[in-house]
Write a structure and sequence with these properties.
Blueprint (H helix, E strand, L loop, with lengths): L1 E7 L18 H7 L1 E7 L1 H17 L1 H36 L6 E6 L1 E3 L5 E4 L7 H8 L4 E16 L2 E10 L3 H4 L4 E4 L4 H6 L3 E4 L1 H7 L10 E4 L2 E9 L14 E5 H9 L6 E6 L5 H15 L10 E5 H39 L1
Parallel strand pairs: 7-12, 9-11
Antiparallel strand pairs: 1-2, 3-13, 3-14, 4-5, 6-7, 6-10, 6-13, 8-11, 9-12, 10-11
Helix pairs in contact: 3-10
């Protein structure tokens, strides 16, 4: 950094008067007023620039304050938008972490009323336990389980709780990535013999049993039917769709069909693929298998739907990225507009 410092050019008196005659009275002010410049570099130049900046700021206090305010608001807006985006991404990723990207869920299609009006997905009775057993034999399928859903009241002593009850296979623990807090999950012998045993989620445990009481081995009543608690599940938190995953009771599928469902049809079938890269292939194979079993020749007439969680995760993450780009773009535009305003203030 350098500055030009004016220097007065004074006459040289070292030479003789004959070589350099004295200037006339009219020429003297001009000679004395003539200026030359030399550059100032280094630390002195920094101090000179600071002094110049301070003088400019003091001369235009209001303009300086408005300029600083514009910069602060613009930068603050960018930081705030990025923080909101990062927080939203972290929250979504935490919720989606409970979902298994290898999982496929099959649900019945929509039934039609007498007026040929669709009644909504899942209202058609089309899936059976035999369908789930056939799917489990397919290559690429690690495990499969039919699911029967019901809502009921579970009672222990003088405490009761309304919760979701699901009849499942023992393999459902692997499919849903459930971890046991205490005891064990439903066993093959429980399923084969249709025992009245139950596995409780942590929300159910917290609302039924007081501190100091071990739930395992206790007798509870589900829809007025006695069940023995064989295990409790570790807390899983909320699902990726906002539901409470811990507010659940699992019982053997055979028991649920006898005690709760009284039907040969199931509410859904869940399965897991053996490889993330193979999920779509497994989905196509399962679709073809069910179409063959249900005598369907046109895929547009399928009486079931298959939900691919990997596609759901991809869609949600893509939407989250789009939201992030939108927020950052809005903040950047605000900063640019603020910068243009600052330029106008400084130049006018």
């Amino acid at each position: 950094m350098s500055f030009l410092k004016p220097e007065i050019d004074r006459p040289d008196n070292s030479s003789s008067d004959s070589a350099n005659p004295s200037p006339s009275l009219l020429q003297l002010p001009l000679a004395r007023g003539k200026q030359q410049y030399r550059r100032v570099r280094g630390i002195p130049a920094i101090f000179m620039s600071l002094k110049s900046a301070v003088r400019a700021l003091r001369a235009n206090i209001l303009r300086s304050l408005l300029t600083s305010l514009g910069i602060i608001i613009g930068v603050g807006a960018v930081i705030m938008m990025i923080s909101i985006s990062e927080g939203n991404s972290a929250s979504i990723n935490q919720r989606l972490s409970t979902l298994n990207p290898l999982q496929l869920t099959i649900r019945p299609g929509s039934a039609r009323s007498a007026g040929n009006v669709r009644q909504g997905g899942g209202t058609l009775q089309s899936l059976t336990q035999a369908d789930a057993d056939a799917i489990a034999q397919q290559p690429g399928v690690t495990a499969a389980s039919p699911v029967i859903n019901a809502n009921g009241q579970i009672i222990f002593s003088n405490q009761n709780w309304q919760t979701s009850i699901q009849g499942v296979y023992p393999d459902y623990q692997q499919i849903g990535s459930w971890t046991m807090q205490e005891g064990s999950f439903i066993s093959d012998s429980d399923e084969q013999s249709g025992k009245n045993v139950a596995v409780l989620g942590q929300t159910v445990v917290d609302n039924l049993f007081s501190a100091g009481i071990d739930p395992v081995g206790q007798q509870v009543r589900i829809s007025n039917v006695p069940f023995t608690v064989v295990g409790t599940l570790a807390s899983k938190g909320s699902t990726g769709f906002g539901a409470n995953a811990d507010d659940i009771v699992f019982i053997p599928l055979s028991t649920a069909m006898q005690r709760l469902n009284h039907s040969q049809y199931v509410n859904s079938i869940v399965l897991t693929a053996n490889n993330p890269a193979n999920v779509n292939n497994v989905q196509n194979e399962v679709q073809q298998l069910l179409e063959q079993r249900h005598n369907i020749t046109n895929s547009l007439l399928d009486d079931f739907t298959i939900q691919n969680l990997s596609q759901v995760l991809s869609t949600v993450q893509s939407a989250n990225q789009s939201l992030t780009i939108l927020l950052v773009s809005v903040a950047a535009i605000s900063l640019v507009v603020g910068g243009i305003g600052i330029m106008n203030i400084m130049l006018v």
